[in-house]
Design a protein that fits this description.
The complex is a heterodimer of chains A (571) and B (476). Chain A is mainly α and 571 residues long. About 5% of the residues of chain A have low confidence. In chain A, strand 2 and strand 3 form a beta hairpin. Chain B is of the alpha+beta class and 476 residues long. Helices cover 51% and strands 12% of the residues of chain B. Chain B has 19 helices and twelve strands. In chain B, the strands form three sheets. A five-stranded antiparallel β-sheet of chain B has the order 3-2-1-4-5. The N terminus of chain B is likely disordered.
C-alpha cells in the first residue's frame, strides 16, 4: 500500500498528538509522586510544553475531542482512558469537556496550568466547588480554549454529551389574566414587599434621557466604587454582619455555623497578618459572650469552643513561623489580639517565649503577664511542667503579676535547682517587694553569692524582728568565706538597718568584747558590728560606738574610728 | 510638560479616536458614500490618526470585554460609556477582536475607508462574520488595514445564540432548584454546578447583552422564587457588566443573584404565596429570609474564600440605600456595592412580575420610572441611573403599542439607532388564536419620502396581563 504525503503528514500529526498526551500523563504521574516544585515535576512540565510547541509549530492548532472513553485528534484515537476516578479522560468527560483547543504561541505557564488543574480536579468529591472547566474559565488562558457542555447536570445524569443541548426549554405559560387577588392593606405588607402596592398609586412620567446623564462627579464616584469593590477586602463588613446576626440569634445551629465561619476567618486573618480583623472578631465574640450570659447559656459554650480552639497549643505553635516576619507595628497589633485569648493560652504562648527575642519577646511577655493576671493557674501548670529554659524565661514575669499566688510561686522558684532561675525569682521577689523574711532564710545559705547578697540587702530594707533574727543567727552560725569579708560586713549592715534594741547587746558585745568570736575573724566582726551600730543609729547604739572609739584596745578603737571616717563598709 | 498633563492628553486622543471611529461608522450606516457628513467623519478620523505621527500600526482591540489601544486599556470619561458599550457590542457581534491601522492610513483614499466601514457593517449579516471579513480583506488587500479575528466559536449564529441563551436560563434555573432542594432535604449542597451556570451566563452576557437581558423578562407563576433568583442574577450581571466589573467579580455577583433568596427555603410555602396581607408573625418570618440566606450559604459546600465573596449581598438585599429596610443593622454605615446592585435587580424583578394572586405589577418602563422616585432613599442614585440607561426608555421585553396599531416587544437598542430607539419584534394575533412572532423592525427607520419615523410608540402595555411571555418571542 502506498502512503501519500498527506497521509504521512496526518500519521505524523497523530503520533505527535499521542506524544503530547503521554507527556501530559507523565506530568500527572509526577504530581502524584513529587511536590510540584520538584525537579522531576518541572522537567515533565517542560517536556509537555516542548512537545506541544513542536506539534503546534509543525501542524497548527491541536484540537482534542473528548469522548467518554478516549481522546480523539481528527477522528483518530490518541489516548484511551478508563472509566476510573482519577483517569485523565474520565476527569475531562465528567466535567463536560467536549474539546480542548491548543493554539500556537502557548506558554509554559499555560500548559503547566492545565496539568496542575487536571491534577487538582481529577478526583472530584460530590461537594467540590469547582472543576477543570470552571478553573479554565477563570484562568482564561490566551492559547488554550475549550468547549464544554452547557448543562453539567446532564453529564451527571449519564446523558450522552452533545454540543447542542437537545432539551427544549419550555417557556412557562402565563394565564391571560392574573388570578384573583385582594388589594393589599397599606398597613400590612404582602409577601414580597410593598413596592408594587405603592407603585399602583404613582403617576408614571416618561423618563427623560437627559435626567439620566451621569454628572462627571457621579461618573468618578462610580468608577471609584467599582475599583474599590474589586480591590477591597469585605471581611470587616462580613464580620460586622456576623456580629449583628449573633447578637439576636436564637437558633443554636445557625449560631454554631457562624462561629465556625468566624473561626476560619480568624485563622486566615492571622495567617495573612491581618490582626485588625482578628482583633475585631475576638472583641465581638467577647461582647457576645457577655450579652449571652443570662439569656443564652448554649451560646456561651459555643463561643467558648471558639476560644478553646484558638487557645490550643497546635494553633499557637503555628505563630512561631509568623513572628519573625512581622513588622513592629504588626507585632504590636498581634499582641492586642493575643491579649484577648483565654488565660489557658498561656500553655501555648509560654513556650513561644523560650525561642523569642527582641520585640516579639517583649510582646509575648506583656501578653503572658496580662493573661496570667486574669488567671494565674495556667501559668502555674506551665511552670510545673516546663523545662528549666522556659522556667527561666517565665520567672521574671511573675514579678509583674500581682497576687498572693504569684508570690508563692516565686518563693517556690527561689528553691529551684537552677541557679539562674533562683536568681530571677529572688530578683522578682525584690522587685515586687514581697516582704517575707521567714520564707527567705534559706536563701542566706544559697550557693550563689549574688543570691545571698541580694537576699541580705533585701532583708535590711525594713525594720523587722524576723529579718533581725535571721541575720543575727546567720552572722553567728553562717558559713562565710574566710577570704571575703564583704558578705559578713553586708550582713551586719543589713542587720543594723533592720534590727531593734534587741540586737544592741549582741552588737555591743561583738564590738567591745568579742567574747563569742574566734580570733580568726575578730577584726571583721568588730568592723561589722561598728557598721551595724552606725546603721542602727539610735542614741544607745551611737553611745556604744563612742565608747568603742575611746577603747584601750586598738582593734576596737580602729573599728569604731573607721566607721567615723567612713571607711567601714562592704568589700 | 509635567507627567499628569501628558496623561490627560493621552486620554484625550484615545477618546477622540474612539469617538471619531464611532461617528464614522454611524455616518456610513445612515448615509450614502458621497454624503458630506460621511466625508467629514472620515476626514476627522484620518486627522486623529495622522496627528499621532505613528511609526508602527495603531492597534484598537478587545480583551476581557475591555477596549485596549496598543497595550494600554482604554480609559474614558463616563460620558462615553454608551459609545464604548455600543462599540463593544458592534465588535462582538462581528466576532471581531480588533483592528490595526498602519501609518499608511493617512494617505488612504476616502473611498477605501468608507468601503471598509461598509464591509464592517454588512459583516454582521454573515454566518461567520469575522471569517467573512477576513476573506474580504484578502480580496481588497488594503495596506493600511489589518483586522484581528476573534473566536467565532464563541458566538455562532443569532439562532445559536438565542438557543444558547434559552438553555443558559433553563440550566441556571435547574441548578438553583437543585441547590434549593438539596439544601432543604440534605441540609447542604455543592456550588459547582451553580458556578458553571454563572460562568455560562457571563459568557452569554459578553456575547450579546441585549439577548441576555431578554432572559430577565421570563416570568413564571409556579416557580416564581426560582425564576426570580435567575432573573435577579441576569439583571445584576448586566448592571455589573455595565459599570465595568471584571469577569471574576461578575462570577461572584451572579452567584449572589442566584442564591440571594436561598433563605426562603426556611419560610413556609403558605407565607411565600399567601394572597393579601401577612400577619405580624408571618411578616417577621418573611423578614428573616436574608438572615436565613446567610445560614444557607454557610451550609453550602464551598471554600471559605468563595463564601466570603457571596455572603454579604444576600444579607443586604433588603437593606435600603438609606439603611432602612431589613434586617435592622444599627452599626452598619453602608450597603456593599453588590448589595446595592442586588437590591435594584430584586425590586425591579419583583414589581414587574405577575403573581397568581396579585394584580399589582408594573410594566418594565413603569417599574424603572417608579424606582427612580426612590433614588437616594431606597436605591443608590448613581447605580439606578446606570440601570435606567441600561434598560432604556422602554426596557427590553416591554410590550408596546405602536401608532400603526401594531403591538411589539422591545428586543434591543442597536448601535444603528444611536441607542435611543429600540428594535421591536412585532406580534400578530389572528382572531382568538395565540400571538405569533412577526418581523423585527427598527423604530429608527424613517420613511424616505417624509423623513419621519415609520412607526412611533403610543404607550407601553402590560405583557403579562395579556398572557404574553416576552422572552418566548424574543428568544424564538
Amino acid at each position: 500500500m502506498t502512503v501519500t504525503p498527506s497521509q504521512d503528514q496526518a500519521n505524523s500529526a497523530t503520533a505527535a498528538a499521542k506524544t503530547i498526551i503521554t507527556s501530559l500523563q507523565l506530568a500527572l504521574k509526577m504530581f502524584t509522586l513529587y511536590a510540584e516544585d520538584h525537579v522531576y515535576c518541572q522537567k515533565s512540565l517542560a517536556r509537555f510544553h516542548s512537545d506541544m510547541e513542536t506539534f503546534l509549530n509543525k501542524f497548527g492548532a491541536l484540537v482534542l475531542e473528548v469522548r467518554g472513553d478516549c481522546l480523539l485528534y481528527k477522528g483518530e484515537t490518541v489516548h484511551e482512558g478508563t472509566s476510573k476516578d482519577g483517569d485523565l479522560v474520565f476527569a475531562l468527560y465528567r466535567d463536560g469537556m467536549l474539546e480542548l483547543v491548543f493554539m500556537k504561541g502557548i506558554e509554559l505557564e499555560e500548559t503547566s496550568f492545565l496539568a496542575r488543574t487536571i491534577d487538582r480536579y481529577k478526583s472530584l468529591s460530590t461537594t467540590a466547588e469547582g472543576d477543570i472547566v470552571t478553573a479554565l474559565w477563570e484562568a482564561r488562558l490566551p492559547h488554550l480554549h475549550y468547549v464544554a457542555v452547557d448543562n453539567i447536570l446532564e453529564v451527571e445524569q449519564g446523558k450522552q454529551l452533545l454540543t447542542h443541548d437537545p432539551t427544549e426549554f419550555q417557556f412557562p405559560e402565563l394565564p391571560d389574566q392574573p388570578g384573583p387577588g385582594q388589594p393589599p392593606d397599606e398597613d400590612q405588607p404582602a409577601a414580597e414587599g410593598t413596592h408594587a402596592e405603592v407603585a399602583k398609586q404613582i403617576d408614571f412620567m416618561p423618563i427623560s434621557p437627559t435626567s439620566l446623564q451621569l454628572s462627571s462627579e457621579e461618573a468618578d464616584n462610580l468608577e471609584d466604587m467599582v475599583r474599590s469593590e474589586e480591590e477591597r477586602d469585605a471581611t470587616q463588613e462580613i464580620m460586622d454582619m456576623m456580629g449583628d446576626i449573633l447578637k439576636v440569634q436564637q437558633d443554636e445551629e445557625f449560631f454554631a455555623y457562624i462561629i465556625e465561619y468566624m473561626l476560619e476567618e480568624f485563622m486566615s486573618s492571622i495567617k495573612q497578618k491581618d490582626f485588625d480583623i482578628a482583633f475585631r472578631i475576638m472583641q465581638t465574640l467577647h461582647q457576645i459572650r457577655k450579652l449571652s450570659e443570662e439569656s443564652r447559656p448554649w451560646a456561651i459554650s459555643i463561643v467558648h469552643a471558639f476560644f478553646n480552639k484558638i487557645t490550643e497549643p497546635e494553633f499557637l505553635e503555628s505563630l512561631k513561623e509568623l513572628f519573625p516576619t512581622l513588622s513592629e507595628a504588626q507585632i504590636d497589633r498581634a499582641g492586642k489580639v493575643l491579649a484577648l485569648l483565654f488565660p489557658d493560652a498561656i500553655q501555648g504562648l509560654g513556650p513561644l517565649l523560650e525561642e523569642s527575642s527582641g520585640p516579639i519577646a517583649g510582646m509575648l511577655s506583656e501578653v503572658l503577664v496580662f493573661l496570667a493576671s486574669r488567671d494565674i493557674q495556667p501559668m502555674e501548670r506551665l511552670l510545673n511542667a516546663a523545662e528549666e529554659p522556659l522556667v527561666f524565661r517565665l520567672t521574671p514575669l511573675l514579678g509583674r503579676i500581682d497576687g498572693k499566688k504569684s508570690g508563692q510561686m516565686l518563693f517556690q522558684l527561689a528553691r529551684y535547682s537552677s541557679e539562674r532561675v533562683r536568681l530571677e525569682a529572688v530578683r522578682a521577689i525584690i522587685q515586687r517587694k514581697l516582704w517575707s523574711p521567714e520564707r527567705m532564710g534559706f536563701l542566706l545559705g544559697d550557693e550563689s553569692t549574688l543570691i545571698r547578697r541580694l537576699t541580705i540587702k533585701f532583708l535590711g530594707a525594713h525594720k523587722s524582728e524576723g529579718a533581725e533574727g535571721l541575720l543575727a543567727k546567720h552572722i553567728k552560725n553562717g558559713k562565710f568565706d574566710g577570704n571575703d569579708s564583704g558578705e559578713l560586713i553586708a550582713c551586719f549592715k543589713a542587720l543594723g538597718r533592720c534590727c531593734t534594741e534587741r540586737s544592741l547587746p549582741f552588737l555591743k558585745e561583738t564590738l567591745l568584747k568579742g567574747g563569742w568570736i574566734s580570733r580568726f575573724r575578730s577584726s571583721t566582726l568588730r568592723q561589722g558590728a561598728a557598721i551595724a551600730l552606725a546603721e542602727f543609729g539610735t542614741e544607745q547604739s551611737l553611745l556604744v560606738l563612742e565608747e568603742a572609739a575611746r577603747s584601750h584596745y586598738p582593734a576596737v578603737r580602729n573599728a569604731a574610728q573607721a566607721v567615723y571616717q567612713g571607711k567601714g563598709g562592704e568589700a | 510638560m509635567s507627567l499628569p498633563a501628558r496623561a490627560v492628553e493621552a486620554t484625550r486622543w484615545e477618546e477622540t479616536l474612539f469617538q471619531n471611529l464611532y461617528r464614522m461608522i454611524q455616518a456610513v450606516r445612515i448615509h450614502q458614500d458621497n454624503n458630506q457628513l460621511v466625508k467629514v467623519c472620515v476626514e476627522r478620523f484620518k486627522e486623529t490618526i495622522s496627528k499621532l505621527q505613528l511609526e508602527n500600526e495603531l492597534k484598537l482591540w478587545i480583551s476581557e470585554g475591555r477596549f485596549f489601544v496598543q497595550s494600554e486599556r482604554l480609559h474614558y470619561r463616563k460620558e462615553l460609556v454608551r459609545i464604548v458599550h455600543a462599540m463593544l457590542d458592534f465588535f462582538n457581534r462581528r466576532a471581531l477582536q480588533g483592528v490595526c491601522f498602519s501609518p499608511l492610513i493617512t494617505d488612504a483614499p476616502m473611498e477605501e475607508i468608507v468601503a471598509f466601514v461598509r464591509i464592517l457593517i454588512q459583516s454582521v449579516k454573515k454566518a461567520a462574520p469575522a471569517s467573512w471579513l477576513e476573506k474580504q480583506m484578502e480580496v481588497v488587500k488594503w495596506p493600511w488595514l489589518r483586522i484581528l479575528k476573534g473566536l467565532e466559536l464563541e458566538r455562532g449564529s443569532d439562532k445559536d445564540l438565542r438557543e444558547k441563551a434559552r438553555n443558559t436560563y433553563f440550566h441556571a434555573l435547574t441548578s438553583v432548584k437543585d441547590v434549593v432542594q438539596r439544601v432543604s432535604v440534605q441540609g447542604h449542597a455543592g456550588v459547582r454546578k451553580a458556578k458553571r451556570m454563572v460562568q455560562n451566563m457571563v459568557d452569554c452576557l459578553s456575547q450579546d447583552e441585549s439577548l441576555f437581558l431578554c432572559l430577565s423578562t421570563i416570568r413564571d407563576y409556579d416557580d416564581y422564587t426560582y425564576s426570580h433568583s435567575v432573573n435577579v442574577a441576569v439583571l445584576s450581571l448586566c448592571l455589573g457588566n455595565r459599570i465595568g466589573f471584571s469577569r471574576t467579580s461578575l462570577e461572584h455577583l451572579g452567584i449572589c443573584g442566584l442564591f440571594h433568596d436561598l433563605g426562603k427555603v426556611e419560610v413556609p410555602h403558605e407565607i411565600l404565596n399567601k394572597p393579601g396581607h401577612l400577619t405580624e408573625d408571618e411578616w417577621q418570618q418573611m423578614k428573616n429570609h436574608p438572615m436565613a440566606s446567610v445560614r444557607q450559604i454557610l451550609r453550602l459546600h464551598a471554600t471559605h474564600d468563595l463564601k466570603s465573596k457571596i455572603i454579604l449581598a444576600p444579607f443586604e438585599h433588603h437593606i435600603k440605600y438609606n439603611l432602612s429596610g431589613y434586617p435592622h443593622v444599627p452599626f452598619k454605615t453602608k450597603v456593599s456595592l453588590f448589595g446595592r446592585i442586588l437590591q435594584i435587580a430584586d425590586v425591579y424583578d419583583a414589581i414587574t412580575s405577575p403573581r397568581a394572586y396579585r394584580s399589582s405589577y408594573l410594566s418594565p418602563d413603569q417599574a424603572v420610572s417608579f424606582m427612580l422616585k426612590g433614588a437616594g432613599k431606597d436605591f443608590d442614585p448613581v447605580l439606578l441611573k446606570v440601570f435606567a440607561i441600561m434598560m432604556g426608555t422602554y426596557p427590553v421585553g416591554t410590550l408596546l403599542e405602536l401608532d400603526t396599531g401594531e403591538m411589539g416587544i422591545v428586543a434591543d437598542y442597536p448601535m444603528e439607532s444611536g441607542g435611543h430607539l429600540p428594535r421591536v419584534v412585532l406580534l400578530h394575533k389572528e382572531g382568538e388564536g395565540p400571538y405569533t412572532r412577526g418581523e423585527t423592525i427598527d423604530l429608527s427607520e424613517k420613511d424616505p419620502h417624509t423623513g419621519s419615523f415609520r412607526r412611533n410608540i403610543v404607550k407601553s402595555l402590560n405583557a403579562a396581563s395579556r398572557g404574553i411571555q416576552p422572552a418566548s418571542f424574543l428568544l424564538q
